[in-house]
Amino acid sequence: GDFKMTTYLTDHAYFNNKNDMDEAVKQHVSAHRDNLNATDRAVLDMIRQYSITRGAAHLKHSTIENAVKKSNATVRRVIRKLERLAIIERIHYIRPVMSGLGANIYAVRPFHDLNLTEQ
Fold first, then answer.
1. At residue 119, does pLDDT exceed 60?
2. Which of 37, 87, 107, 108 is most exposed, with the fewest beta carbons within 10 Å of its own?
3. What is the largest CA-CA distance in the chain?
4. pTM of the model
5. Which residues lie closer than 8 Å to 19 by C-beta, 6 or more apart?
6. Separation in Å, CA 47 to CA 111, 112, 118
């Protein structure tokens, strides 16, 4: 179905609905099948799951670490890798109330075949 009402998260979404996003994730994973390990896929799947209602996910590193049972360093490395492969975009989100950075927003990016040439 279509994503719910506009929120600060849907402003960052690349897709209008879950099906298009899921399809893009499948294409990304397929295109990079030799390049993504189990942890990479687990982190991507978590971002996908958290994006189902709004098109983007607002996640703390610790939430991802607990879910995939990996260290902070590993999760950070995976996120950098997914960004480098143009699978996700990371949006730094500054909480209006508190100073400093809160959780980041992650959005699955559309799949483009040209990503294949950028190894």
1. no
2. 37
3. 43
4. 0.86
5. none
6. 16, 19, 23
